[in-house]
Specification:
Belongs to the short-chain dehydrogenases/reductases (SDR) family. It contains eight helices and seven strands. It is an alpha/beta fold and 260 residues long. Bound molecules: nicotinamide-adenine-dinucleotide.
Length: 260
């Protein structure tokens, strides 16, 4: 699995200075791909992260700051990278509230970052993939792209949307050596999940442990969090030759959540 089968390829991973995106970047770098890391910040520590990933895996790694809530910055990210063989649309945020109390600006931000960004990056990346004669697009959706939970209207809508976008992208590239799929993780204990624990405690009147056991892992029959390494491996598999005919579909990595 971790031979350098992606040597010579460049992978752009949006929202990759933490969590799943960083885990995916590590696995693709381990497989030999040059990496473009991204988030909306442009700090010394972001560039230091790129340097340490490059040292660890012996590949070229750049950090390019671009705000995935803005369509023009999404497209500029791909243009500045100059090459995009693998595009992982991963940037995402969450907000938890009942619909009547859900702030409209949070709805707009979630739809922009979790869904529209993938439209813009895909639009900019496809011409580069076509010119190179090969491409892989992996959209990090969610179990919430296939099922719903109360209080997550914008997130569930965006994640269902990105699965639809993945299918259309796959159909438009079906006759080319380009694939597009959506990975649907269950709960992974990243900063995004940590951040929703306080609001969920409030909504359900529970303490932290109860939220983890009764709300989060309640949905996950394995009773274990998914790891970023497992999602990195799944993404690397989708970039391998074995997955050349896998396109327009979803792969659940959710401990059995969507089997229920
Ligand atoms: P995280 O908060 O650790 O990472 C999110 C990343 O997106 C960070 O690098 C952050 O800087 C970046 N980001 C946020 N806003 C951005 C913006 N405007 N522009 C560019 N980058 C931005 O969260 P995570 O859990 O690693 O989430 C990554 C993806 O995985 C998201 O799409 C999320 O919906 C999805 N996901 C997460 C889980 C989970 O349980 N953690 C489950 C299913 C799906």
């Amino acid at each position: 699995m971790f031979q350098k089968f992606l040597g010579g390829k460049t992978a752009i991973v949006t929202g990759s200075n933490s969590g799943i995106g960083l885990g995916v970047a590590h696995r693709l770098a381990m497989a030999g791909a040059d990496i473009v890391l991204n988030s909306f910040t442009d700090r010394d520590e972001d560039h230091a992260l790129a340097e340490s990933l490059a040292r660890e895996h012996g590949v070229a790694v750049r950090y390019i700051g671009a705000d995935m809530s803005k369509g023009d910055e999404c497209r500029a990210l791909i243009e500045r990278a100059g090459r995009c063989d693998i595009l992982v649309n991963n940037a995402g945020i969450q907000h938890v509230a009942p619909i009547p109390d859900f702030p409209a600006e949070k709805w707009d931000a979630i739809i922009a970052i979790n869904l529209s960004s993938a439209f813009h990056t895909t639009a900019a990346a496809l011409p580069l993939m076509r010119a190179a004669g090969w491409g892989r697009i992996v959209n990090i959706a969610s179990a919430h792209g296939l099922t719903a939970s109360a209080f997550k209207s914008a997130y569930v809508a965006a994640k269902h949307g990105i699965i639809g976008l993945s299918k259309v992208t796959a159909l438009e590239t079906a006759r080319e050596p380009i694939t597009c799929n959506a990975v649907c993780p269950g709960y992974v204990l990243t900063p995004l999940v940590e951040a929703q624990i306080p609001d969920t405690m409030k909504e359900y009147g529970m303490d932290r442990d109860e939220v983890i056991q009764k709300v989060m892992l309640e949905r996950q029959p394995s009773k274990e969090f998914v790891t970023v390494e497992q999602l990195g491996d799944t993404t690397a598999f989708l970039c391998s030759d074995a997955a050349a005919q896998i396109t327009g579909t979803t792969i659940s990595v959710d401990g059995g959540w969507t089997a229920m």
